[in-house]
Amino acid sequence: MADNESLAARGERAEQIKRKPELYKVCEGCESIVVAEAATCPNCHGYRFDISTARVREQADILGKRLPTSVPPSELM
Ligand SMILES: [Zn+2]
Fold it and tell me: Which residues have CB less than 5 Å away from ligand 1 (the ion)?
């Protein structure tokens, strides 16, 4: 799934999220960013979310900078 995403793609997505944080929310269970209309988290099936735009922006920043944990070394440039 998201594991094969390049860091550049993640950064780009983080920018998109930060431009429209009101369309997203942060899962309280696993801290992933999900779309606002999602009823449960696709990752952990949690149903508790933080909908504050400040929290979404903060989480997008973290997500955009963090390297994917399972990326093969050949993708690290
Ligand atoms: Zn979750």
Answer: 27, 29-30, 41, 43-44, 46
